[in-house]
Amino acid sequence: MDETTKWLLEQAKRQAEQAKAYEDRAFFLALGTFIQKQELRLTQAQGEVDGRFWDHRRW
Amino acid sequence: MKTLIVVSHPQLADSPTQQFLKACAAGVTGATWHHLDALGRFDVAAEQAQILAADRLVFEFPLYWYQAPASLHEWLARVWTRGFAYDEQGGRLRGKSLGMVVSYSQPRSAYQLGGTENVSLSALLSPYAALARKTGMTLLAPLEIAQFGYLTEQQRGELFAQYQQYLTVGRPARFAEQAAWFLAALAARAETDPTAALMHDTLAERQDQLASLQQTITELREGEAD
Question: Which of A5, B56, B84, B201 would you call most buried, defined as having the most Cβ atoms within 10 angstroms of its Cβ?
Answer without folding.
Answer: B56
